[in-house]
Design a protein that fits this description.
By secondary structure, the chain is α+β, with helices and mostly antiparallel strands. 40% of the residues lie in helices and 18% in strands. The strands form two sheets. Strands 2-4-5 form a three-stranded mixed sheet. The protein has a two-stranded antiparallel ribbon with strand order 1-3. Helix 1 packs across helix 5, helix 2 runs parallel beside helix 4 and helix 4 packs antiparallel against helix 5. The chain is globular.
């Protein structure tokens, strides 16, 4: 019964992601900007996965060079971005690995970085990961399931906030 429930939630997430991609494509996906401390927003979201990853023995480190930075953002959408990035980092980080989340002020920009000690992405696949349905691993050799939609949505949300996303 647990397996059926879990698969239903996966299917629901997939359907919701497809609906959201269509909303983004047609300009109906709205962000509700307000003035928020982005440091607290990102730190709280990051720390929310701490208990889950302890079971895998993964060490999660959050680091910042500023304690408060008020920016115009939609905290719900920032949560979606961070949870997607963290979820990918968790999926591809081996037990007893590390995930580093940092937030730094660089000139007038806020730079959020998620880095893990996982297997990495081949250089020739780096450009694909933000494409809809794009995935870095061959479907036959993938170690984790996924639709390839999440990072495309992440990119759209980041750009709606006036930001940009890059992978190294």
């Amino acid at each position: 019964m647990t397996s059926i429930k879990q698969n239903c939630y996966r299917l629901l997430r997939l359907v919701n992601n497809i609906i959201d991609m269509n909303k983004i494509d047609y300009g109906y996906y709205d962000i509700e900007l307000g003035n928020y401390n982005i440091v607290s927003v990102v730190e709280d979201i990051t720390m929310s996965v701490l208990e889950y990853i302890k079971n895998k023995g993964i060490e999660l480190i959050f680091d910042t060079d500023t304690e408060e930075e008020i920016i115009a953002c939609d905290p719900d959408k920032i949560e979606r971005v961070m949870l997607n990035l963290l979820s990918n980092a968790i999926k591809y980080t081996d037990d007893n690995g590390d995930i580093y989340v940092s937030l730094n002020k660089v000139n007038e920009d806020v730079v959020v970085s998620v880095k893990d000690s996982g297997v990495g992405i081949p250089n020739d696949k780096l450009e694909l990961i933000f494409d809809r349905f794009g995935q870095a691993n061959d479907i036959l050799s993938r170690r984790c399931e996924g639709s390839g939609i999440g990072l495309s949505i992440v990119k759209s949300i980041v750009e709606m906030h006036g930001g940009k996303i890059e992978v190294f």
